[in-house]
C-alpha cells in the first residue's frame, strides 16, 4: 500500500536555480520558452497494479508512467529522453535518471501534508521546485 502523502494534486509555488540545472543537463533551450513550459500543477497517482502516473499541466502538458524499481524512458526538459528508475524511501520518491550524454541526475521528491519539494542534482548542480498541496 502506498502512503497517501505521496499522492494527490499539487500547485506550483516557486523554484530555485533552474537555469543552472537545465544547462548542467545539456538541454539547449531558450530560458523564456522553458519558463512558459513550466508545469503549473502536477498530479501523482498509483494504479491498483502498481503503475505510477505523474501528470503535469501547464502551457505544455505531459504524463509520465513508471513502476518502482523498473527502468522506464521519460521525457525531461526540452523533450530530452532519459532512462529513469524510481524507488520510495519513507516520504520520498527518488528517481535516478541517465541522460543521453551519460550524465546521472538524481531527483528526490519529498512529500509533506503541505505539499512537495523536488530537488534535482546533476554534476553537483542542485535545483529545487516547490508545490503546495491542492
CATH superfamily: Calycin beta-barrel core domain
CATH third-level topology: Lipocalin
Beta-strand content estimate: over 45%
Q: Tell me the number of structural domains.
A: 1
Q: Which features does this protein show?
A:
134 residues, Lipocalin, single chain, globular, ten-stranded antiparallel β-sheet, mainly beta
Overview in brief:
The protein is mostly beta strands. The protein is built from two helices and ten strands, in the order βααβββββββββ.
Question: How would you portray this structure in words?
Answer:
- By secondary structure, the chain is mainly beta.
- It contains two helices and ten strands; from the N terminus they run βααβββββββββ.
- 10% of the residues lie in helices and 57% in strands.
- Strand 9 and strand 10 (125-133) form a beta hairpin.
- The two termini are 22 Å apart.
Amino acid at each position: 500500500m502506498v502512503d497517501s502523502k505521496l499522492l494527490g494534486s499539487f500547485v506550483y509555488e516557486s523554484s530555485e536555480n533552474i537555469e543552472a540545472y537545465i544547462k548542467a543537463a545539456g538541454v539547449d533551450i531558450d530560458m523564456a520558452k522553458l519558463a512558459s513550459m513550466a508545469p503549473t500543477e502536477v498530479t501523482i497517482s498509483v494504479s491498483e497494479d502498481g503503475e505510477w502516473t505523474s501528470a503535469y499541466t501547464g502551457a505544455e502538458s505531459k504524463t509520465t508512467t513508471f513502476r518502482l524499481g523498473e527502468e522506464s524512458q521519460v521525457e525531461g526538459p526540452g523533450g530530452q529522453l532519459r532512462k529513469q528508475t524510481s524507488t520510495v524511501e519513507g516520504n520520498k520518491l527518488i528517481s535516478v535518471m541517465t541522460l543521453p550524454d551519460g550524465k546521472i541526475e538524481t531527483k528526490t521528491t519529498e512529500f509533506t501534508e503541505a505539499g512537495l519539494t523536488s530537488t534535482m542534482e546533476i554534476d553537483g548542480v542542485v535545483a529545487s521546485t516547490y508545490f503546495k498541496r491542492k
